[in-house]
Amino acid sequence: MPNKSHLHVSNPPKKPLLIWDGDCDFCRLWIERWREITASTIDYVTYQEAAERFPEIRLDQFEQALTFIEPDGTAFFAAEAVYRSLAYRRWRQWLAWSYDHVPGFAAVSETGYGFVARHRKFASAVTRLLWGKDVRRPTYLWARRWFLRALGVIYLIAFLSLWAQVDGLVGSNGVSPVNQFLPAVRAQLGPDAYTVLPTLCWFSSSDAFLHFLCGSGVLCSLLLIFGIAPAVLLVALFVLYLSLTIAGQVFFNFQWDVLLLETGFLSMLLAPWRLWPRELLFWPRSPSEATTPVSRAGLFLLKFLLFKLMLMSGVVKLTSGDDSWWNLTALDYHYWSQPLPTVFGWWADKSTEWFKHFSVAFCLVVEIIVPFFIWAPRRLRLIAAGLVIFLQLVIAITGNYCFFNLLTIALCLLLIDDASIRRRNVEERTSPASQELRPPNAKWIIEPLSTYGAIGVIIVTLPINAWLIFSVFKPLSGPPHALGNLYERLEAFRIVNGYGLFRVMTKDRSEIVLEGSDDGIDWQPYEFKWKPGDVKRAPGWCAPHQPRLDWQMWFAALGTPRENPWLVALIFRLLQGSHEVNGLLASNPFPQGPPRYIRAMFYRYRFTRMDELRQTGAWWKREDLREYLPTLSLEQFR
Description:
52% of the residues lie in helices and 8% in strands. By secondary structure, it is an alpha+beta fold. It has a 5-stranded mixed β-sheet with strand order 1-5-4-2-3. Strands 7-6-8-9 form a 4-stranded antiparallel β-sheet. α1 (25-38) links the parallel β2 and β3 (43-46).
């Protein structure tokens, strides 16, 4: 048991004083963190400077341990000195209380302190390895600035991408007109329809209003990029995109849509609630120049979202029952079976088998192990960011996943703290100017709306997120009743979601090819802009734009016509000669007027080999399977 008797000095300081070894590199690193925690409540001095003032304390005592002297003259040493000094901050007082009252706490603390004190060089090396040259609590002004700009760019991409398609998808002459969908839902659900489907389109579902929503989203995104009223704009962007997501119906059933909404919602709690925060436009020389601090609760929520996204996406692969993830053969199928491969995906498919298996293992490690480094010290956290970004870039090169990869990379920016951007040496850290990376606590005026709002969101959503993560480990488990009811209410707003891309690897590729004819004998195919059709057309690259009809055709091929009623609606619009729907396709094989008949044929597609490409010029080879839908004519819809 540590000795609780204390020395008393005859010349006590007017202010609590912590005395440390100025020759100890480990002490030098952590004293800076200590200064920040205790702010101006404690003075700090090296024993080389202060030893003569306190003759009651032996020189070897100064050399062996920290010394903390109270204004009443009581001196504490080692771990107890640590806890007594930290007790001057209210939120650290539990340490001193535990030292005095919790059995074994003091003994374990002194033993641990003694070990570090005897191995200072090793402790210093470990500290520098994990944290670098600065162990103070990280700030994230740079990360917030560029994350919010990146989010503005992603919102801009999403709105522009939809704007180009909205008429053909859900306009009055589109595949699934929202002006027919919402009245049908209201007739079925009554007043509950407004909470089940929260969208501004209840006010108007006209084509003009859809364009207004898209245009407003574009304008708000541009303003966000320039850093004008970021929090208010994020609220507007969330409402606009949620409205369009619900109006988009089946064409918005994608994980990156809900990821963008969840990210956008949580970003409201990180963004400054100011008209024009200067730190979003100009990189401040120091945090003291920032008008608004970074909400740590809001930052935690966004980091946790990245953690949840990656961990769930990895674990779900191993718990889905698909052996291709366990035996590392998933990439034997992925490059050619994914929805919209790129030409680089074709070349990646030609890589050696061992490299594909290594790539699967790398993906699983990055998605399952690396997310835990998000909560680690700086160096490990930066490694985690680098590995996740690298994985996203590789995925983006080989497949068209819209803005998903950009959004994940944007979240990774929040792992890069200011000290990682601004390299400083030891002299700068210990000089008076070293405080410029972080202003005194008194200058940080925390905004109640973002801080307390973030804490409230943590309290409400953390149990749901915990269950969502648990559910990928135990896929057949259900939430507790009360938690399930809460999740059901929040689900309509897409602010807390589960993720799990490529739970089961698609090991075959079937394509639906629509064909039209005027006489039922000569059939002409409808070519889509991006999905495979003509075997000699190279896989294209459309990301970050998402051709939502092309994507939906891939999902339709995995099911039956009965499971995809929108496909029949698509054929109906083509038979009508809808200009808006034809605009979603690469070309119209019937420019003079719509065909009399349309059918849907089913083909099996597979990448060609390298020698086949050289001989035939074909990137794909296909096999006729069967008819997916029988021949339809306009008369059958009347």
